[in-house]
Give the backbone structure.
Amino acid sequence: MKVVIIAGSGELDRVLHALNYATVAASREGNEVSVALEPQALPAFRKENPLRIFSPALQEDAEKMMDRVKQAGFPITVAETIKFAKQAGVKIYACAPCAAIMCNLKEVDLLPEVQLVDPDKFVNDIILAADKIYRI
């Protein structure tokens, strides 16, 4: 089954959830999983100085929560988490013109696991070709 998880936020907790859900889904036999990054999520995937903002509900306790996650042995950065997703077979895409125009980002600015594609491929071949679409 083709599964697409749309990451529509650059808030760290939501980005990590998207990558973790994708990793779990990809581990199930027969699933082909992709994460589609909307422009709002792209700053969290920069190689250097990625954004570290959290959802408003978690903002107050965010650093303590991240310490607990790290102590439990889980990755706490996008760069660490994305490696597990890629090892599980997850593909990560973003629309190239959106990255360039809305975020002033090129492929060289992003983590190497992120593939920039043209809008037609992003919408038609990735998102609309999925059997299941989830938005986080």
Observations:
- The beta strands are 2-7, 32-37, 91-95, 114-117, 132-135.
